[in-house]
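Lecture notes, part 5. Sequence design as translation. It can be helpful to think of inverse folding as translation between two languages: the language of shapes and the language of residues. The source text, in structure tokens, appears below.
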């Protein structure tokens, strides 16, 4: 009987080092949203990749940061810390050429004697191999890393290599998910994340930090899937920012979201999106509990 291996792998790092892009390319499907805005990822998104006798269960975490002091930020940071327990390996992602105080803060979170792999992402930003080696050596002594790898996740380079260095850290085990399953998240969750990504992309700095997308209804039929969503903001003056002049901004966000959903779910999508104000929701304990 062929031995099989299966284990959990946490992907951590400060905001904007490419954690979500890395996981999306590792599993071959976009299930974790990407944006330049810090802590775009709010939930611990699980991505599953199965290759021959090995199943990798990746956990993409929010970027750890201390810039904001809101209860939401605190909940997201706690989510990062909790993800480091009960995993078989940790991929610590840094950006090539940059290692700052925010990276140091994440480094301090790493458990003693854990199976940690240093992943230097965006290696295409450095001029040559000598520059990459020098940067790698400047970090390598900060923790007893099991391995060091450099990749360019955006360009899909180094993905096989990183799987190869993760594999020895996974225990012998039966697969925990069907071989064709890519995530443990529901279709409703993925739909809400797609809308949230478009909000990040098209609103930029105007985007309210404590915004939420709620899927009110997700109805599948043989010919079309109907998705009804509500974008929830904290203040009255945030609503027109999302809607835009003559509703143009919300229309663009909805159109782009629908196209991405059709690609992901491989079916025709009917999408309707509303914007609602719910003052104080970001500090509501029921809202914060979802990030635990």
């Amino acid at each position: 009987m062929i031995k099989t291996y299966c284990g959990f792998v946490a992907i951590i790092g400060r905001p904007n080092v490419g954690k979500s892009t890395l996981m999306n390319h590792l599993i071959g499907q976009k299930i974790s949203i990407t944006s330049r805005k810090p802590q775009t990822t709010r939930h611990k998104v699980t991505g599953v990749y199965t290759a021959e006798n090995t199943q990798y269960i990746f956990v993409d975490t929010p970027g750890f940061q201390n810039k904001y002091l809101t209860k939401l930020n605190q909940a997201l940071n706690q989510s990062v810390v909790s993800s480091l327990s009960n995993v078989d390996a940790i991929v610590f992602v840094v950006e090539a050429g940059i290692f700052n105080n925010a990276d140091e803060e994440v480094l301090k979170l790493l458990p003693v004697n854990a199976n940690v792999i240093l992943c230097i992402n965006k290696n295409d930003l450095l001029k040559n191999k000598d520059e990459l080696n020098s940067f790698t050596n400047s970090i390598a002594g900060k923790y007893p890393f099991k391995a060091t790898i450099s990749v360019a996740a955006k360009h899909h380079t180094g993905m096989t290599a990183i799987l190869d260095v993760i594999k020895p850290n996974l225990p012998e085990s039966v697969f925990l998910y069907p071989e064709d399953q890519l995530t443990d998240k529901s279709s409703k969750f993925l739909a809400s994340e797609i809308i949230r990504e478009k909000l990040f992309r098209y609103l930029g700095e105007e985007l309210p930090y404590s915004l939420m997308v709620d899927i009110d209804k997700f109805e599948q039929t043989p010919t079309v899937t109907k998705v009804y969503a509500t974008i929830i903001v904290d203040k009255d003056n945030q609503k027109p920012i999302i809607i835009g002049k003559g509703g143009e901004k919300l229309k663009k966000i909805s159109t782009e979201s629908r196209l991405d959903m059709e690609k992901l779910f491989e079916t025709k999508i009917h999408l309707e999106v509303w914007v609602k104000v719910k003052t104080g929701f970001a500090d509501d304990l029921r809202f914060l509990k979802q990030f635990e």
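The translated text above is only one of many valid answers, since several sequences can fold into similar shapes. The first strand starts at residue 5 and ends at 12.
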